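User: Structure tokens for both sequences below?

Assistant:
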Amino acid sequence: MSKSQRTLGQKTVFHTQFFFRKFPAVPYIFKWLIICLIIGILTGSASAGFLQSLEWATNFRENHLWLIALLPIAGFLIGLLYYYWGKDVEAGNNLLIDNIHDPKGIIPFKMAPFVYLGTIATHFFGGSAGREGTALQMAGAIADQLSRPFKLDKNERRILIISAIAAGFGSVFGTPLAGAVFGLEVFLIGRIRYTAIFPAFTSAILADWTTNLWNVKHTHYHIDFVPKLELLPVLYSILAGIVFGICAAAFSKIIHWTGSFFKSKIKYPPLRPVVGGTIIALAVLLMGTTRYIGLGVPVIVGSFEKQLPLYDFALKMGFTIITLSAGFKGGEVTPLFFIGATLGSALSLFIPLPFGLLAGMGFVAVFAGATNTPLACMLMGIELFGAECGVYVAIACVVSYLLSGHNSIYTKQKIGEAKNRRYENQQDRTISDFL
């Protein structure tokens, strides 16, 4: 090599080093852009396949209602699957949150197919469950396999799982902004991990984009009328938020109590969904309606179009709590949307706000109170219903978050910043410590 070539090489190295010293974020952005691209494509595709499967299962069940009689048998098979081969992934979303707090071994990939099969079976045979839990678990199990090839350390693995949660949530609901903030917000009450903000938003946006490329359609909701922002509507919104917060706290407390009851009374885990499935199947038979099983999306849409009866939310709460507490798979979030939207619609009997607006407020506010993610729920309301209702949605979410107390459907959430003085010295304790 000639002297001029060596000099040129040295100058190139010098300029490269100078560039990275001047712009230290460039390697970080480049690395996470590659990782997020992989997460986005894989998670978005998994969500697309899951949503299509879920739609098929729901339609097939509604056209063959005799399948609901087989729900106890399906529950037994799901119970066997997890008892003999899936104990290490049975914690579901709590396992993801636990790994953000304290990353240990790589999340087993089998979590993805197990929760997929369990959720499809739950919906196919008539359980009342959601889809967010499945999307998050599939995303987390898929994404964490990247830890070894990219040689990620503990802090980077935390960011990876946060990004996976953001991607799964954003793609399954078609709300990438809410998904990103949900991933940043869900594991630690009152705090956000800003070191993950770029990967979370990038993963959520890419996953949602990928799901759309697969031509998967999300449900659209419409609020006909939003009143002018004045004192009385604001006061009514606060009142509604109080009701939504109480509902969220009640759901969280009852579902944990019912889960403990099943475990204490039925020692062999595969038998728990048999009992729960029998209760659900008999209830459907006696009531003569499938209104309260599955996702319940038609009822959610209907809550924006007309005033619904007050008992809708209570019945959906009962069906969902029995289904999930007994050991069936799925998520709590879409049922929480149903509970909140129908409760909001019914509240228009007493609160002089448009039933469509109250349905939208309840849709996200009960979810905000049950998961302690008010910022994500505000963004979700804006993404789903439009910016016009943003202030009302925000009021309902904040009030619900505060009124729900330190309760959550996710027992591994930690207290980062206490909501009130009673819990000021309880930082870093998990929700499970208070159950």
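Moving on to the next sequence.
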Amino acid sequence: MNVRRRSSAAALAAIAVIGAAAAPAVAADPSPSASPSTTAPSGLYGTTDPQYDGVWRQSLALLAQDTAGVVPSSTAVKWLTDQQCANGAFAPFRADPAAACDAKTPVDTNNTAAAVQALWAVGGHGDVIEKALGWLKSVQNKDGGWGYSPGTPSDANSTSVVIGALTATETNPEDVAKGGRSPYDALLTFALPCAKDKGAGAFAFQPDKDGKLLANADATAAGVLGALGKGLVTEAGEKSEAASCTDAGKPTRERAAANAAAYLTDTLAKDGHLVSALGGSADQPDYGNTADAVVALAAQGGTDKAAEPLAWLKKNAATWAAQSGPAAYAQLIFAAHATGTDPRDFGGTDLVAKLNATGPAPQGVAAKDTASAHAYETSDEKKDDDSPFGVWWFVGVCLVFGIGIGFLLSNRNKKQQP
């Protein structure tokens, strides 16, 4: 779905790639920024500048903790709720939550939808969620979808992350229509036919400047979950045969998801992972999008579909996550959850302890998970750095900020309805 990238040279290079392809390109893992340029209130996960990705990484951290049976710190939850504007939207980061949001406050659909999923998961914030959903509905485009920022054209990633927020809160996306078009209607306009020279079943981010749809692995992983009505956290779907792409005059969303899964499977077959490239550099492993692809493949066709990229992540992703911080650990926890893998022994790494150590100590472990949960970190040890690079949502933020300004699930029933 798209969101966190910063103003480093690597991010600018990623924006250049986006501009050339008119679709989000996930940057290789850059070094995190040296220090925050903005003083962040206590309660935030990670130590780098939260200006563009604070709400995103906080939401993923809280959602991953809940998924692993950890009760998050109340301070961390309050940090997230404090970022909401009076109209219900979430800004990536508000240095002074006491000050009212104004026309210059950079609110967006991705951070808002992620916050909805996280707050629904931890429970007890129905009023915040209701306002956020109301704002999302108010900025829905006429085609039924969403762009990153209000008023921008719909894209597959943003539409998918909002679908995830709707379904996580037990809202049927088909009932959230604009001009007779639902979010699913909008999402399917980004689905490509099966011919290899036309996209091989992938999803595009959005049309390029010539109106052409280009296959994009980032948007495809997002599109699979969106088409299935899944959020950031999901469990494995029913086991199915090897995914294949089948053209249809007007594919159902389930057919589009299967076609997209086939595209991901073919793309992953060479190396066991997805790749990304910055302008002028060689392709590099894309850990974040590979984790997203694992979730998508498992959701569409069961854990066996995701076995190869999951194995690659277990072997190779620990260093990337340590460098990239909370959102990266959360992505790996989501991949572990979707495949029934223990996140406390992910290739020898306790992802839950590592995530917990990047922010305020959790309150504890949920009673239902106490028997299986390992001890989590409560020490005041040095927090892992958190580069905002690594998850499919943030490329959209690059596009918006790099081009526009000068401009990117669990089915749990929660106690409180929005």
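User: Anything stand out in the second?

Assistant: The radius of gyration is 19 Å.
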